[in-house]
């Protein structure tokens, strides 16, 4: 099955980072050709489907490297209150009441929001009904990394069951739907997972060839308490326990020492930067420019709608692009190119996904079309496209989305998700 | 001319800050009634036009208290570079080439962007063709504060001409279009206006009953240089010169001492908070929570597209709502209610506009409708509406806009601005 998409401005995000008018040919799930200019008659004749891009910008689909879809119905249920009050009065009591249906409907709503704002790949760390989530992911045709979040503050047997459940998820779903679904191991955080449990997780990861995703160094309080209890920073401690001998992605990394940064760099640990959630919860601001200078791979995450409160990676890019300039009082510490890489090919690397995040022959055909004919994206020329994507574009400018060559949104209409039904169910939800 | 808008969720932003299902009746340019429930037959019979709000949220139109519309075509023309490089290589050389046509087309583009993202009132500080801008403002039907920006680094005669031009603008346009257009005096900044010029401006303000808008304490370098040259902070200096004896609005206020804050509070000076521009230019983060605690009136500004790079007040609200929580590591320092007030009735107060920024009988009928039927605004109930408006809504959710009772956007279609022509002209612009 060949698709030809012509009359587009291609934003490759390849090494040269070129932006040009041209076309792409998708063969099955991958890019077959990416070229400047107009397609030949031969190209047209080979295509099963020809799509006129009408001057839209074609760029890699955005990659959300940290989130919790199952709690999406808690958007706006508690804001502007201290973290522990929020957890104790909003998150935990509500999550205890979550049925399978609530989690599925919430995750579906989150997927609608993500597709409509240009996300094609997401990581989901959640502790409830992850096998159902896998089925939703498959039917949505989105690219998904599933992590059964594990809290280790429980008896040994329960710990082992959680790990076994994660491994089962891996065996059942890793690589399905043409590799669109993958599975990683996910101990929740050092403050909820005792060292003995972390060691078990590392062992399971090594035995099964899985990689690890965990929350790390999100708040100052958590880091201070860890040092008081264990005598070392959580990053140093996790490294001592062997966590970083397995490919790893940490979420947040807000409160880090120079030694921590050195460890992350040496052990090739990736970071999911969640600027909006970190700000909203009052956690702080991660030292992203320092990490970039060290060559640490930075990706972007939204975290959940309960702490963001949206899943629009264009907004997350905007925050990542602006806040570090402001706090460093230096507009050069981040550039639009860096930020777009966080949301595309750096994100792919952080999620251990090969050949993803660029518009390039041989790469996965995950891409979106952005309509540039709006006042807020003008004036425009090739030189300004990266700037506009990072500093001006909105999720609502995305009109089309393709994942592994499958057209999942066409002219803003969702093709793999039943938006009307999902919105109806979200409206019916009451807490 | 009576308009009845029913079946809406009204977000009054009045003292009680209530959110309820109801209707509003607009008589000429003002709200006549704002009520819960459904309109009576009598209400319907009295109306010349009945609009079914279809469950949308009706709230005060957003107020942008600081911007420079004429430079809108410089969006994305230079990013990620130091401030002085940006001014010297992007802003100043390009602005020197601006013709009347370029400035008019750029300002028109900016107005389209603002209306489409929910802004009904804006302040424009610019130095070129402000009489033409007044005509554009009138035909757009937007509520507008016009400020002929004055740089005082010039001979006395030129200074006097600039002040005379500002006063002429005031006499020609202040209060026109049913009071939708007002005019203020605008010395650019202490670093571009010597004390002797500031004294002339204060004198002109007092003589003509005008208020004053100026940039103040935007960057640390500017404040440090001011102290080195004059021995006092720019805020203290402006107060000594009598500036704050006239009603005043300062843009930015990023680098302030405790004494500065005390002066702003004592003299009832309002602040235009421009978080995105301050971050993007690396200027820093204004001490907004301290100002709020002191009772200083805070409004929101976008600054120009050259340093933002968009004019969407929903984004500005998001940044204002989140960054202070993050830098203070305290999620309680700002609330959704505070932020919405900055963009509505606090904004009105900052712009010296009476009876504006609330949905309330007797107030100006400046309001917008927001479509809540999108994944990113669900789930929703009355308790979550303020949260969703600040933490989740996008400019693109706004469907309708009314200013002084005039319907200027209907189902996303602009009624007072020729969007197609304005976009065509923006596309034709080349630098």
From TrEMBL, chains A, B:
Binding site for substrate: 95, 148, 188, 218, 303
SUPFAM superfamilies found in the cross-reference section: Composite domain of metallo-dependent hydrolases (SSF51338), Metallo-dependent hydrolases (SSF51556)
EC number: 3.5.4.28, 3.5.4.31
Keyword Zinc: yes
Alphabetical keyword list: Hydrolase, Metal-binding, Zinc
UniProt-annotated binding residues for Zn(2+): 66, 68, 215, 303
Catalytic reaction(s) noted: S-adenosyl-L-homocysteine + H2O + H(+) = S-inosyl-L-homocysteine + NH4(+); S-methyl-5'-thioadenosine + H2O + H(+) = S-methyl-5'-thioinosine + NH4(+)
Entries under Pfam families matching the protein: Amidohydro_1
Obligatory cofactor(s): Zn(2+)
GO molecular function, one term: S-adenosylhomocysteine deaminase activity
Cofactor binding note of this UniProt entry: Binds 1 zinc ion per subunit.
Residue ranges of every copy of the Amidohydrolase-related domain listed in the record: 58-405
Function of the protein: Catalyzes the deamination of 5-methylthioadenosine and S-adenosyl-L-homocysteine into 5-methylthioinosine and S-inosyl-L-homocysteine, respectively. Is also able to deaminate adenosine.
Similarity annotation: Belongs to the metallo-dependent hydrolases superfamily. MTA/SAH deaminase family.
Name assigned to this protein: 5-methylthioadenosine/S-adenosylhomocysteine deaminase
Originating species: Evansella vedderi
Lineage, top ranks: Bacteria, Bacillati, Bacillota, Bacilli, Bacillales
